[in-house]
Give the backbone structure.
Amino acid sequence: MPERPEHHSTEFDLVVDLDVDLTDPIQAQDARPYRWDVLLAVAVGGVIGAEARYGLGRALPTAAGDFPWITLLINVAGCLLIGMLMVLALDVLPTHRLLRPFLGTGVLGGFTTFSTFEVDVVRLVDDHHAVTAMLYVVASLTACLLAVWVGVTAAAAVLTAETEPEHDAEVPA
């Protein structure tokens, strides 16, 4: 935890995010409790993401005992977008304190579905498809972690390419 400033308030003791510097007036203001607008942004984004996930799940259902491809694809796509969003939110998009809660926690948190992942694993095991369940666990964890890395790397590469000065191919005579 950061060092407690001499003029700290009781809010300082409530901070659990070590990236928050309460000696900075702007960050201290954002750390005040009961931010209903943030809760609303997360809730609205969560509804949007969950409805998108639900629609995909209904459009492409998985039969009992089959490999749950749609859940895997939803989670991988969401992880890829989360990786890209974090780079864009920190380096490109206009800073708005509701952007990450709405898009990251809300929309993409509601879209990705690790609870369904867990239910899929339990159902596969209960239906005596333990090998499929194990493959699903390994594929999900590996692909989702890789997707976050690819999202961050790709977004950073695009930003780097856009900010580098262009070099003329002409050689002075």
